[in-house]
Amino acid sequence: MQPILRQGDTEIYRIEEYRIPMLPVTEMFLDTDRLRPQIAELGPLDYDPSSDQLVMSSSSYLVRRGQTVILFDTGVGNDKPRARSIWNQLSTTWLDELSAIVDPADVDFVVSTHLHCDHVGWNTVMNEEGEWVPTFPNARYLFNELDREFITSDAATVMLERNGDFRADSITPVFDAGVADIVPLPYEICPGVELVHAPGDTPGHMIARISDPESSTPLALITGDALHHVLQVPFPWLTSSFCSLRQVAEDTRRSVLAECADTGIPMLAGHVASHDLLYIERTPDGQFRVAAPDIPIQPGETP
User: Quick check: is 280 in a domain?
Assistant: First the structure.
């Protein structure tokens, strides 16, 4: 597998767990009736008209910075009991694909941008004794206090009932194994890789700024669920029905889009199936749009 971005001693790989028509438009987003013409124009990697479902990806990002290896977001995971049928007892080649890039024992840090079911699953695998144990035995798993409080709160109960108890099989075992760290925000994992608070999808949702460690030139933004779908680029007011703090999520999304448009760096949005590197530009009237694929934007350059 080739990296989707390489700059100096930085390599970023996208590891895709699945890419499927997944959610009806009206389940994913509220107030989409007025956008039917725009939805119909979406390409086949973003929308399936036969089912009226949005095409979604579940992707992780492996960042290699020199000798340091950082994994962002670990998908749904295999063999996990889940209430949603498309996630229940998955069997994918995700771990094999990651292992072709790096030995799981050589991963130094694992970051879940937020604590939702489809971002924590490969935190653990089942051992021969039938116990969920950390997939990456030598890694430190990084969390923040806001999301730890969220996942143990009454507000999380409905989410766990809706999805299956991913807290029990994908989060608690990591803490029980003593490999979890609660970090403040912002937090620099290593030079040029910084976690930043970007709330909305959950109270403690994070994004990661990747920059050149010597020049501080921005390279990429790993955005978690600040953006779920390309439809939210021209229409950032569209907020997922799964977001905990909907207005805050919109504010965060607008901020992230502005940062990418103003710096020329790509957004790495794990649910967007149609773009490995999602470049954003401003329209003449100040709105946002996906940059045309033939625009030769390089990391760190302004379009």
Answer: yes
CA distance 221 to 278: 10
Model confidence, pTM? 0.95
- What range defines the domain where residue 186 resides? 5-290
On whether residue 165 sits in a domain, the answer given is yes
Question: Alpha-carbon distance 108 to 150, whole Å?
Answer: 25
Q: 246, exposed or middle or buried, with CB in 10 Å at 0-12, 13-18, 19+?
A: middle
If we measure between CA atoms, which residue out of 68, 82, 157 comes closest to residue 120? 82
Give backbone dihedrals phi and psi of 104, rounded to 5 degrees, phi first.
Answer: -50, -30
Quick one: how far is CA 275 from the chain centroid? 13
Query: Residue 23 falls within a domain, yes or no?
Result: yes
In order along its 303 residues, the chain shows pLDDT tens digits of 999 999 999 999 999 999 999 999 999 998 898 999 999 999 999 999 999 999 999 999 999 999 999 999 999 999 999 999 999 999 999 999 999 999 999 999 999 999 999 999 999 999 999 999 999 999 999 999 999 999 999 888 888 988 999 999 999 999 999 999 999 999 999 999 999 999 999 999 999 999 999 999 999 999 999 999 999 999 999 999 999 999 999 999 999 999 999 999 999 999 999 999 999 999 999 999 999 754 433 333 333
Nearest to 269 by CA among 284, 286, 283, 252: 252
Q: Give the Cβ contact number of residue 37 at 10 Å.
A: 7
* Count of CB atoms situated within 10 Å of the CB of 27: 13
Q: Per the structure, how many domains does the chain have?
A: 1
- Determine, yes or no, domain membership for 142: yes
DSSP 8-state secondary structure symbol assigned to residue 129? T
Sequence-ordered strand ranges (E) for 169-236:
180-182, 187-190, 193-197, 206-211, 218-222
Q: List the beta bridge partners of residue 125.
A: 133
Residue 149's CATH number: 3.60.15.10
